[in-house]
Each structure stands twice: as C-alpha cells, then as structure tokens.
Amino acid sequence: MQCWLARLGWLVTLLILMISFDRRNAGGSVQQFVLSSPAFFDGEDLPRIYTADGSDLSPPLHWDGVPNNTDSFVLFFEDLGLDRDRWVHWLLFDIPADLRRLPAGIHGSPHLANGSRHGLCCGVDECRRLGYQGPSLSTPQLSLSSGHPVSRHRFSFTLVALDHKLSLPEGSSPLCIRQEMKGHQISAASLTCFYGAEVAQMICS
C-alpha cells in the first residue's frame, strides 16, 4: 500500500512538473509579430525627410516576433486616407525570411542585393514607378486647396509573412502580388503614421 501511494505521489509530482514546463514554454515561445521604426513611433507624423517634400528616403524599419515557417516577406506602404483605390507608395517582395531590418534610403533598383525585389508603386491613375515613393503635398489628395475631406492622411507600412516566395518578376503590380499571396499569408504586422497639409503646417510653424 505504501509503495503504491509512493508511486502515485511520484506520478502526480511528475505531472505537475510537466504541466508547469509546458506553460513556461508556451508563454516564452509566443511572440507578437511587430513592425517598428527608429525614426518614428506608431501613430506619429511621418518625418518630412521620408516624404517627397523632403529627401524622399524610405524610413528605417525593424521587425521582431517572426512567425514560424516564414519563407519570405512582402512590404506595402499605402495611403489609407483615400476612400477608394489605395495609393501604394512602396512595394517590396521576396524579402528574405532571415532579414530583420531595412536601413533608411533603400535604392529603387528592381532587384536588391539582399534578394528582395521591387513591385510597382501604384497611384490612383497610374502604376509605373519602382522603389519608394514618399507622399507629397503636390498630389491632389493631400492638398488643403483640393477640397478633399481628409487632408491629414493615415499611412501604413504593412509587413506580411508568407510561407513561400512569390513566383513573380520584379516590377509586378500590387494586384498580381496580392493574388499570388492568397493562401500563403501567415501573419502581418503594421506601422501607421500620418502626413498631409495639416501635418506640414504644424511642422513648419
């Protein structure tokens, strides 16, 4: 009887230790997929240097908590302030899975040294430019004089983790890339910012 009780106690102790170990591992392994920039915080105004009214440099970007089974990333930079037909200011795909940051001022060449490729930027009526295209007050949707109801637009950098690389050439359109991404998205991380005539006035005043 004592031997049986000793064995039962040992089994209960072992079970408790296993549950505790699993909980610790589960808590430590779950990481949030996060996109950030050392140049600005989420929800802040986009610094002028990263707009076409400044130096038109792409901002530095960092990301952490990459999901398991990620094989590549796709990066979109879009104007969310438009009612229709989002303006895609930057599109980079086949970003290597082991990459964790992009420096400022990424060159607009079709194929980058790190293996990434540029897709086409796409405006409301055109889709032809490669590389980063920062927002500009010269475009009608950001000008206060245009009468557009939203002069301070919200923009989003969105990094999508995929389980494979896209079988598309550099210079592919946003539509083609989104179609190729279907069924292969693991997770996405976003970084938002604002820019527009009202923001520029605040910066200059």
What are the main properties of this structure?
205 residues, alpha+beta, 3 helices, 6-stranded mixed sheet, 3-stranded antiparallel sheet, globular, disordered C terminus
Number of helices: 3
Please compute the radius of gyration using only Cα atoms: 23 Å
Count the beta strands.
Answer: 11
Strand arrangement in the largest pleated sheet: 2-11-10-4-5-7
Which segments are poorly predicted (pLDDT under 50) over 5 or more consecutive residues?
A: 4-8, 10-29, 201-205
Distance separating the two termini: 86 Å
The largest pleated sheet is described as: 6 strands, mixed
Mean pLDDT: 82
How do the strands and helices of this protein lay out in sequence?
Elements: H1 2-29, E1 34-36, E2 44-45, E3 61-64, E4 72-79, E5 87-96, E6 101-102, E7 117-118, E8 120-121, E9 129-130, E10 152-162, H2 174-181, E11 185-196, H3 197-204
Parallel strand pairs: 2-11
Antiparallel strand pairs: 1-3, 3-6, 4-5, 4-10, 5-7, 8-9, 10-11
In a few lines, what is going on in this structure?
This protein has 205 residues and is of the alpha+beta class.
In words, what does this structure look like?
The protein is α+β, with helices and mostly antiparallel strands. The protein is 21% helix and 28% strand. The chain has a 6-stranded mixed beta sheet with strand order 2-11-10-4-5-7. Strands 1-3-6 form a 3-stranded antiparallel beta sheet, with no helix packed on it. It has a two-stranded antiparallel ribbon with strand order 8-9. A hairpin with a 7-residue loop joins strand 4 and strand 5. The protein is globular, with a radius of gyration of 23 Å. The C terminus is likely disordered.
